[in-house]
Amino acid sequence: MDPLKAQQLAAELEVEMMADMYNRMTNACHRKCVPPHYKEAELSKGEAVCLDRCVAKYLELHERLGRKLTELSVQDEEMMRRAAGSTAS
Amino acid sequence: MGIVFLLFVNIMTAQVSESDQIKQFKEFLGTYNKLTENCFMDCVKDFTTREVKPEEGTCSESCLQKYLKMTQRISMRFQEYHIQQNEALAAKAGLLGQPRGEPDPRDLYLQIRAAQCSGQQHPTSRQLMQIAL
């Protein structure tokens, strides 16, 4: 697969992934910050601030875990390459 | 942007067909999102700050490793289960030999019939007759 096509495909997949992440983040922050009492229609100040922080934290966590996953998959691949190399020789 | 591209390039080097690789990668991205949500829900409890606290950080890294090991184990057991199911089905259909090396009754029947047709008595049919009589 040529690098330009790979980049395009990766960008498409990323958009899809971001959409899914957005939905999950909304779900998570709703459960964390908005207690299911619904006594009034407006978001309280506490709920609003909690949501801001929740979004910040979720995005940071998402990035951290992504970096860690990349690390792990690079390590895995190294191990497999070494194993394949040793069996070949 | 960078992370997805890196992961993508990393995975696209194996000897699998391209469309399968893409499917695999999509599934992988789905898993990535699921585990982020899962670990966030379980590890992040302090909303007095925007910063991710160190204990939340370590919790989520352990969560990541555990989640991956869990999915690997589940997948392994699932495959084992299906292999067992297939073997059982195949044994029933007579495609495999009987377990424990006993003769397949269908083969035995065919041998007995063949012996009967040639006018001889198959040793097993003699035994069976002795038991029956």
What's the short story on this structure?
Chain A has 89 residues and is mostly helical. Chain A has helices at residues 3-33, 45-88. In chain A, helix 1 packs across helix 2.
Structure, described:
The complex is a heterodimer of chains A (89) and B (133). With 89 residues, chain A is mainly alpha-helical. Chain A has a single domain (3-36, 45-87), classed as Mitochondrial import inner membrane translocase subunit tim13 like domains (Helix Hairpins), CATH 1.10.287. Chain A has helices spanning 3-33, 45-88. The two termini of chain A are 29 Å apart. In chain A, 16% of the residues are buried. Chain B is mostly helical and 133 residues long. Chain B has a domain at 18-91: Mitochondrial import inner membrane translocase subunit tim13 like domains (Helix Hairpins, Orthogonal Bundle). Chain B has helices at 2-11, 18-43, 54-92, 105-117, 123-132. Chain B starts with a helix and ends with a helix. The interface between A and B is large, with 42 and 40 residues.
Largest sheet of chain A: none
Low-confidence stretches of chain A: none
Tell me the number of helical segments of chain B per DSSP (H or I, 4 or more residues long): 5
Residue stretches of chain B low in confidence (pLDDT < 50, at least 5 long) are none
Q: What is the CATH topology descriptor of the domain at 18-91 in chain B?
A: Helix Hairpins
Q: Averaged pLDDT of chain A, please?
A: 90
User: Structural class given helices, strands, pairing of chain A?
Assistant: mainly alpha
When the domains of chain A are counted, the total is: 1
Percent of residues in beta strands of chain B: under 5%
Radius of gyration of chain A: 21 Å
SSE diagram, text form:
The complex is a heterodimer of chains A (89) and B (133).
Chain A lengths: L2 H31 L11 H44 L1
Chain B lengths: L1 H10 L6 H26 L10 H39 L12 H13 L5 H10 L1
Helix pairs in contact in B: 2-3
